[in-house]
Amino acid sequence: MSRRSFVTGAFAALTGAATVTRAAAGTVSGAVSGAVTGAVAARGRPPKGVVLRAAPAKVSIGSRTVSTWAYDGLLPGPRIEATAGGVVRARLVNNLPAETTVHWHGIRIAAPMDGAPGYTQKPVPPGGSFDYTFTVPDAGTYFYHSHVGMQNDRALYGPLIVADPHEPLGYDQEFTVVLDDWLDGVTGTPDDALRRLNASTGHDDTLRSTLLGGVTGELRHPYHLVNGRAATTPEVFASRPGRVVRFRVINAAADSAFRVALGGHRMTVTHADGFPCARPVEVDTFLIGMGERYDFLVRLGDGAFPLVAVAEGKRARAFAIVRTSRAASPPDRNVRLSELYARILRYADLNCRRADALPRPSRSVTVTLGMRPSGNEWTLNGKLSDDPMRLRVERGETVRIVLDNQSPMWHPMHLHGHTFQLRTAGARGPRKDTVNILPRERLNIDVHADNPGEWMFHCHNLYHQEQGMMGAFGYGRPPAGEHRMHH
Ligand SMILES: [Cu+2]
Q1: Ligand 1 center to 371 CA (angstroms)
Q2: Residues with CB under 5 A from ligand 1 (ion)
Q3: Distance (Å, rounded) from C-alpha 288 to C-alpha 312?
């Protein structure tokens, strides 16, 4: 029914548990599709799963075409589907003029498959390839992205949706909503933006948000996208009145949190970062930081409704349309939605199921988030990524990490290889892999150390990550020189 209904991709016939699907129109040109098939053929044997060909590409963001780096010429990259307990096989083919990797964000994955350069693998050189094969233990909404340098602020990301074979939710249809902030090919590259930022002093104090406790981002991206489309030529989600629809929202942006609302509807939040809520939460809007995901259900009314994602504190927005009536006139992309200013989701509203609760921690360790006086270096326990903080854990223990934000900005902190339990006052709290922490705030996250490896623990503001805010969460004695192998 929808132009974006799940169209089986060229590789589906070749896949086992994982399948890749792609949009039928909009973001991919025929020439690029041909090139993808060519890359597969050039390998001489059929892949047993998905092939992600990272290469320079021209992609349309609706109102204009931009030069960027993309997977298979698509923005977002191809949708990868799997089933909980199943195996994903994905071959990364690097046709970029730079090293790259793929990180499977939020997946409790085996360490060698995590795509973390210098931590779990050597980056794949130009012309090289790497086969990722891993089990997906948990159902839910995830995504994948490059973990090298500023590449995640290009088109090198895509949704990874893990179905629950015993899905308890009842709904008629689902849509994936991938949010992004975009500058590549418009105001230079993300590397140019980082260089400019590093050459400047102080932050743009006009980018402010009460919700985020002060300065909200490092820079203004000229576009904000839903599924690769700018607000002027929006994505349209087609459905019918009365349908119950599951929306899977992914924030793949580099520097923008979004406040999300659907005009004329309340939303029932069912999942945070892939994990189900013990009790769904009815709200009007939610804030989603970089790397976070939320799923919500709505029963759709009759009409054409604005799906708005305000780039928090930036006076800009991503915009799409949910249409259940052909006759209804399209909503104004600048519409003021009362839902955006009504009941907002809080972390304290979220609780994981009892079965997903982690053991009580036996000790705690503090991670202080800081900023050096330059304003362009962000630290964990005073250290930068080139000589990183390392939290040492032993297999089988549960550790409480006390996040103490002494820096003047909020940070979406992301842990690889695990999902932690965010301990909220007097409640169980949600299982998450990414958590927003505001200036002067302290948060407790409990981690059960059941997945040995040397894992990244970092801010998912890509600019902060590249300005040092990256540490290690490692089992036992530190591996010799591992962290420095990429410097
Ligand atoms: Cu940060």
Answers
A1: 10
A2: 411, 459, 461, 464
A3: 9
Distance, CA 465 to ligand 1 centroid (Å)?
A: 7
Distances (CA, A) of 407 to 304, 358, 438: 42, 29, 9
Edge-to-edge strands of the sheet including 390-393?
Answer: 390-393, 470-475, 454-459, 411-415, 434-437
Q: How many CB atoms lie within 10 A of CB 35?
A: 16
Q: Measure 315 CA to ligand 1 centroid, in angstroms.
A: 20
pLDDT in tens, 379-411: 999 999 999 999 999 999 999 999 999 999 999
Residues in CB range of 151: below 8 A, 6 or more apart:
69, 96, 98, 100, 145, 190
CA angle 234, 294, 405 (to 5 degrees): 110
Note if the bond before 76 is cis, omega within 30 degrees: yes
**CA 61 to ligand 1 center in whole angstroms:** 27
Cα 399 to ligand 1 centre (Å) = 22
459 CA from centroid of ligand 1 (Å): 5
Residues 140-186: pLDDT tens digits? 999 999 999 999 999 999 999 999 999 999 999 999 999 999 999 99
Burial class (CB in 10 A: 0-12, 13-18, 19+), 29: middle
Question: Is 294 or 37 the better-scoring residue by pLDDT?
Answer: 294
Q: What percent of the chain has pLDDT over 70?
A: 89
